[in-house]
Amino acid sequence: MKPDEIAVIDDNRQCVDAVVSTLTGDGYRVRIAFSGQEAMDLLRTTSPGMVILNVQLQGVNSLRLLADFRRKEASTPVLVMSDDDRAAVHEQAMTSGANGFLRKPFPPDVLLAAVRRFSDQNCPACVR
Description:
By secondary structure, the chain is of the alpha/beta class. The protein has a single domain, classed as Response regulator (Rossmann fold), CATH 3.40.50.2300. About 45% of the residues lie in helices and about 20% in strands. The protein contains 5 helices and 7 strands. The chain has helices at about 15-25, 35-45, 60-70, 85-95, 110-120; strands at about 1-5, 5-10, 30-35, 50-55, 80, 100-105, 125. The strands form 2 sheets. The protein has a 5-stranded parallel beta sheet, sandwiched between helices. The protein has a two-stranded antiparallel sheet with strand order 1-7. Strand 4 (about 50-55), helix 3 (about 60-70) and strand 5 (about 80) form a beta-alpha-beta unit. The longest helix has 13 residues, at about 15-25.
């Protein structure tokens, strides 16, 4: 099963371009938010089948955004990505509701494997 749509939230345009290229190249539809405010608007007005969220966004606490999203959408898979590999960052992301954690930079096959793994779980927003 594939998510109908994946929300990619990151203020690093190079990272977004790479993630979007990988996902669209594998047939996924993607929506993008480049800032905390855009992310809040996107998650308030859409129901993505999956969210890929950078842990460090300018203008918003990403982990608080994740926790707020979890209250609205408990079953939507969320992958958190960060170039900070400290155990505390990973633990905070998972405690805030992330399903998985990707350490930047990551190769396309690692991203796709993570997306597929969480897409295969019971995801009501996923399509065959």
